[in-house]
Design a protein that fits this description.
Layout: E1 15-19, E2 27-33, E3 36-47, E4 59-65, H1 73-87, E5 98-108, H2 113-128, E6 136-143, E7 149-151, H3 155-160, E8 163-170, E9 179-184, H4 188-225
Parallel strand pairs: 4-5
Antiparallel strand pairs: 1-2, 2-3, 3-5, 6-7, 6-8, 8-9
Helix pairs in contact: 1-2
Length: about 230
Protein backbone atom coordinates (compact mmCIF):
# COMPACT_ATOMS: atom_id res chain seq x y z
CA UNK A 1 0.00 0.00 0.00
CA UNK A 2 1.53 3.31 -1.10
CA UNK A 3 1.91 6.10 1.43
CA UNK A 4 0.13 9.46 0.85
CA UNK A 5 3.46 11.25 0.36
CA UNK A 6 5.12 8.31 -1.45
CA UNK A 7 7.79 7.73 1.21
CA UNK A 8 9.27 4.31 1.91
CA UNK A 9 7.78 2.59 5.00
CA UNK A 10 10.83 3.33 7.18
CA UNK A 11 11.52 6.82 5.80
CA UNK A 12 10.93 9.83 8.05
CA UNK A 13 9.92 13.20 6.67
CA UNK A 14 12.42 15.95 5.95
CA UNK A 15 13.62 17.64 9.14
CA UNK A 16 14.20 21.33 9.69
CA UNK A 17 15.31 23.28 12.74
CA UNK A 18 15.84 26.96 13.56
CA UNK A 19 17.49 27.81 16.89
CA UNK A 20 17.36 31.10 18.77
CA UNK A 21 14.71 32.87 16.71
CA UNK A 22 12.71 34.13 19.74
CA UNK A 23 14.56 37.20 21.01
CA UNK A 24 12.84 37.43 24.40
CA UNK A 25 13.32 33.78 25.35
CA UNK A 26 16.46 32.41 26.99
CA UNK A 27 16.45 29.72 24.31
CA UNK A 28 14.15 28.68 21.48
CA UNK A 29 13.75 26.20 18.68
CA UNK A 30 11.40 25.62 15.80
CA UNK A 31 11.44 21.94 14.89
CA UNK A 32 9.65 20.67 11.81
CA UNK A 33 9.12 17.19 10.42
CA UNK A 34 7.56 17.67 7.03
CA UNK A 35 4.62 20.02 7.55
CA UNK A 36 4.30 19.31 11.28
CA UNK A 37 5.98 22.18 13.11
CA UNK A 38 6.34 23.34 16.73
CA UNK A 39 8.00 26.49 18.08
CA UNK A 40 9.31 26.29 21.66
CA UNK A 41 10.57 29.03 23.94
CA UNK A 42 12.40 28.33 27.21
CA UNK A 43 12.53 30.83 30.06
CA UNK A 44 14.74 30.25 33.07
CA UNK A 45 15.91 29.27 35.46
CA UNK A 46 14.02 32.25 36.94
CA UNK A 47 12.31 33.10 40.21
CA UNK A 48 9.43 30.79 41.05
CA UNK A 49 6.12 31.46 42.77
CA UNK A 50 6.05 30.36 46.39
CA UNK A 51 3.48 27.58 45.94
CA UNK A 52 5.55 26.06 43.08
CA UNK A 53 8.88 26.31 44.90
CA UNK A 54 10.82 23.09 45.44
CA UNK A 55 13.68 23.17 47.92
CA UNK A 56 15.79 20.53 46.19
CA UNK A 57 15.18 21.17 42.49
CA UNK A 58 13.76 23.47 39.84
CA UNK A 59 10.06 23.43 39.06
CA UNK A 60 9.43 22.44 35.42
CA UNK A 61 6.40 24.02 33.78
CA UNK A 62 5.17 23.17 30.28
CA UNK A 63 2.47 25.08 28.42
CA UNK A 64 1.23 24.17 24.94
CA UNK A 65 -0.90 26.26 22.62
CA UNK A 66 -2.58 24.61 19.61
CA UNK A 67 -2.41 26.09 16.14
CA UNK A 68 -6.12 26.96 16.25
CA UNK A 69 -8.44 27.70 19.17
CA UNK A 70 -8.02 27.07 22.87
CA UNK A 71 -6.12 24.13 24.41
CA UNK A 72 -8.14 20.91 24.46
CA UNK A 73 -7.95 17.86 26.69
CA UNK A 74 -5.61 16.31 24.12
CA UNK A 75 -3.33 19.35 24.34
CA UNK A 76 -3.28 19.14 28.14
CA UNK A 77 -2.34 15.47 27.87
CA UNK A 78 0.51 16.38 25.52
CA UNK A 79 1.72 18.99 28.02
CA UNK A 80 1.93 16.28 30.67
CA UNK A 81 3.71 13.90 28.27
CA UNK A 82 6.35 16.50 27.37
CA UNK A 83 6.84 17.51 31.01
CA UNK A 84 7.23 13.94 32.28
CA UNK A 85 9.77 13.22 29.53
CA UNK A 86 11.82 16.34 30.20
CA UNK A 87 11.72 16.10 34.00
CA UNK A 88 13.68 12.86 33.78
CA UNK A 89 16.38 14.51 31.68
CA UNK A 90 16.77 18.01 33.13
CA UNK A 91 19.36 18.30 35.92
CA UNK A 92 16.86 20.22 38.01
CA UNK A 93 18.80 19.73 41.25
CA UNK A 94 21.42 22.19 40.00
CA UNK A 95 18.88 25.03 40.20
CA UNK A 96 16.76 24.53 43.34
CA UNK A 97 13.94 26.96 44.15
CA UNK A 98 13.69 28.22 40.57
CA UNK A 99 11.38 27.82 37.57
CA UNK A 100 12.11 26.52 34.09
CA UNK A 101 9.18 27.39 31.84
CA UNK A 102 8.76 25.69 28.46
CA UNK A 103 6.19 27.20 26.10
CA UNK A 104 5.22 25.25 23.00
CA UNK A 105 3.29 26.75 20.10
CA UNK A 106 1.96 24.35 17.48
CA UNK A 107 2.39 25.91 14.05
CA UNK A 108 0.82 22.99 12.17
CA UNK A 109 -0.16 19.46 13.13
CA UNK A 110 0.16 17.24 10.06
CA UNK A 111 0.80 14.06 12.07
CA UNK A 112 3.21 12.76 14.76
CA UNK A 113 2.82 15.95 16.82
CA UNK A 114 3.89 14.49 20.18
CA UNK A 115 7.29 13.43 18.83
CA UNK A 116 7.77 16.81 17.16
CA UNK A 117 6.89 18.64 20.40
CA UNK A 118 9.39 16.63 22.46
CA UNK A 119 12.15 17.23 19.91
CA UNK A 120 11.42 20.97 19.77
CA UNK A 121 11.46 21.23 23.57
CA UNK A 122 14.78 19.40 23.90
CA UNK A 123 16.44 21.63 21.31
CA UNK A 124 15.09 24.77 23.00
CA UNK A 125 16.46 23.60 26.36
CA UNK A 126 19.87 23.05 24.77
CA UNK A 127 19.70 26.50 23.17
CA UNK A 128 18.86 28.03 26.58
CA UNK A 129 21.80 26.31 28.24
CA UNK A 130 19.61 24.37 30.67
CA UNK A 131 21.72 21.44 31.93
CA UNK A 132 20.56 18.05 30.65
CA UNK A 133 21.70 14.50 31.33
CA UNK A 134 21.79 13.84 27.59
CA UNK A 135 20.00 14.62 24.35
CA UNK A 136 16.62 12.95 23.84
CA UNK A 137 14.75 12.41 20.58
CA UNK A 138 11.29 11.03 19.89
CA UNK A 139 9.74 9.27 16.90
CA UNK A 140 6.33 7.89 15.96
CA UNK A 141 5.25 4.93 13.85
CA UNK A 142 1.89 3.47 12.91
CA UNK A 143 0.56 -0.02 12.21
CA UNK A 144 -1.75 0.04 9.19
CA UNK A 145 -4.82 -2.21 8.83
CA UNK A 146 -2.89 -4.54 6.49
CA UNK A 147 -0.27 -5.11 9.22
CA UNK A 148 2.50 -3.04 7.64
CA UNK A 149 4.36 -0.49 9.78
CA UNK A 150 5.27 3.02 8.68
CA UNK A 151 7.62 5.55 10.29
CA UNK A 152 6.69 9.15 11.03
CA UNK A 153 3.04 8.84 9.90
CA UNK A 154 1.10 11.81 8.59
CA UNK A 155 -2.39 12.68 9.88
CA UNK A 156 -4.14 10.58 7.22
CA UNK A 157 -2.12 7.49 8.14
CA UNK A 158 -2.74 8.02 11.86
CA UNK A 159 -6.50 8.29 11.28
CA UNK A 160 -6.54 4.95 9.42
CA UNK A 161 -4.03 3.10 11.64
CA UNK A 162 -4.79 0.10 13.81
CA UNK A 163 -2.35 1.43 16.40
CA UNK A 164 0.07 4.34 16.81
CA UNK A 165 3.26 4.24 18.89
CA UNK A 166 5.62 7.01 20.02
CA UNK A 167 8.95 6.35 21.72
CA UNK A 168 11.63 8.71 23.01
CA UNK A 169 15.21 7.52 23.49
CA UNK A 170 18.20 9.12 25.18
CA UNK A 171 21.39 9.55 23.19
CA UNK A 172 24.08 6.96 23.80
CA UNK A 173 21.97 4.72 25.99
CA UNK A 174 21.08 1.14 25.10
CA UNK A 175 18.22 0.97 27.58
CA UNK A 176 14.50 1.30 27.86
CA UNK A 177 12.93 4.36 26.22
CA UNK A 178 12.37 7.43 28.38
CA UNK A 179 8.86 7.88 26.99
CA UNK A 180 6.33 5.47 25.47
CA UNK A 181 2.81 6.05 24.23
CA UNK A 182 0.95 3.24 22.45
CA UNK A 183 -2.66 3.52 21.35
CA UNK A 184 -4.98 1.16 19.53
CA UNK A 185 -5.16 -2.59 19.08
CA UNK A 186 -1.83 -4.43 18.71
CA UNK A 187 0.08 -7.52 19.73
CA UNK A 188 3.52 -8.01 21.23
CA UNK A 189 5.14 -8.65 17.84
CA UNK A 190 3.75 -5.40 16.46
CA UNK A 191 4.86 -3.51 19.55
CA UNK A 192 8.42 -4.86 19.27
CA UNK A 193 8.55 -4.03 15.56
CA UNK A 194 7.40 -0.47 16.28
CA UNK A 195 9.97 -0.20 19.08
CA UNK A 196 12.77 -1.15 16.68
CA UNK A 197 11.57 1.18 13.92
CA UNK A 198 11.29 4.15 16.28
CA UNK A 199 14.72 3.39 17.74
CA UNK A 200 16.23 3.56 14.26
CA UNK A 201 14.32 6.76 13.49
CA UNK A 202 15.52 8.48 16.66
CA UNK A 203 19.12 7.72 15.73
CA UNK A 204 18.64 9.76 12.55
CA UNK A 205 16.81 12.52 14.44
CA UNK A 206 19.50 12.71 17.12
CA UNK A 207 22.18 13.03 14.44
CA UNK A 208 20.19 15.88 12.87
CA UNK A 209 19.74 17.61 16.24
CA UNK A 210 23.45 17.40 17.03
CA UNK A 211 24.29 18.87 13.63
CA UNK A 212 21.82 21.73 14.17
CA UNK A 213 23.32 22.61 17.55
CA UNK A 214 26.90 22.34 16.30
CA UNK A 215 26.10 24.57 13.31
CA UNK A 216 24.73 27.30 15.58
CA UNK A 217 27.73 27.10 17.92
CA UNK A 218 30.11 27.31 14.97
CA UNK A 219 28.21 30.26 13.51
CA UNK A 220 28.21 32.15 16.81
CA UNK A 221 31.91 31.40 17.33
CA UNK A 222 32.71 32.95 13.97
CA UNK A 223 30.65 36.04 14.83
CA UNK A 224 32.39 36.37 18.20
CA UNK A 225 35.74 35.99 16.49
CA UNK A 226 35.00 38.95 14.23
Amino acid sequence: MARPDRRDPDQIRALNCVLGQLSRADGSAQFSAGSTSVVTGVYGPVDVKLFDEKLDRAHIEVKLRPDVGLPSTKDKWLECAVRSTLERNILAHLHPRTLVQINLQVRLDAGSLDACAINAAVLALVDAGVPLKTMVAAATCAVRPDGSIVADPVAEEIADASSVHTFAFASGENSEPVYVDSRGSFGLAEYNACYDMCARSTERILAFMRTAVESKVTRESHIAGV
